[in-house]
Design goal:
The protein is built from eight helices and seven strands, in the order βαβαβαβαβαβααβα. It is α/β, with parallel strands linked by helices and 179 residues long. The protein has one domain: 3-Layer(aba) Sandwich (Rossmann fold), CATH 3.40.50. The protein is globular, with a radius of gyration of 15 Å. The protein binds adenosine monophosphate (AMP). Adenosine monophosphate binds next to α5.
Length: 179
């Protein structure tokens, strides 16, 4: 069974279309018989993804920092709860427990997770890829910044093999199946 880590928004204060995007990705995981590995919080795109994934038959693994547990922020959808101490060890656990990583629209937490994985891959700690699901062109701005940094020589040319952009659920399905 394939494990797919999903990084995505904790915010609820975003357009309804993004919740539909999260549900679409959750459904895909169920359809592929995959395991979802994610932050385990009971709100935002995290909960929307997990809910759709669970309903469609995916196994749900939440990697949960103790502080979230103390604040009663943990989703009730988890089949397995992996406790962790803080956001740093959580990123490593999510990376270790997954075959491929997908980032849906998110904020600074999602950016932190994307670059944690990508930076480790650029210096050879692992060979997993981060797939940016470009719903509504959400990641165009980030890719443009990375392109400029690459033109100036600050970003290694190989980054485009590590951070990959997909524009449709079909493209995402193909990449997950390839892993
Ligand atoms: P953000 O993109 O800033 O909304 O942060 C969401 C991402 O960071 C998720 O992929 C989570 O893994 C992690 N994260 C940030 N805040 C939380 C939270 N309150 N509960 C669980 N995970 C969180």
């Amino acid at each position: 069974m394939k494990s797919v880590a999903i990084f995505c928004a904790a915010s609820e204060n975003i357009a309804p279309g993004y919740f539909e995007v999260a549900a679409e990705v959750g459904n895909l995981l169920g359809r592929l018989g995959a395991t979802l590995v994610y932050g385990g919080a009971r709100f935002g795109l995290m909960e929307a993804t997990a809910k759709a994934a669970k309903i469609s038959g995916a196994r749900i693994v939440g990697v949960v920092p103790r502080i979230l547990e103390e604040r009663d922020r943990v989703s009730s959808l988890l089949d397995e709860k992996v406790p962790c101490n803080n956001l740093s060890d959580r990123k490593d656990i999510m990376l270790t427990r997954s075959d491929v990583i997908v980032a849906l629209p998110g904020g600074v937490g999602t950016l932190d997770e994307i670059f944690h994985v990508a930076a480790a891959a650029t210096i050879g700690y692992h060979s997993k890829r981060v797939v940016l699901y470009n719903a509504n062109g959400f990641w165009n701005g980030l890719m443009s910044v990375l392109g400029e940094m690459s033109d100036e020589g600050f970003v290694r040319a190989g980054l485009h093999n590590i951070i990959i952009v997909v524009n449709s659920i079909e493209e995402l399905e193909t990449i997950i199946k390839e892993v």
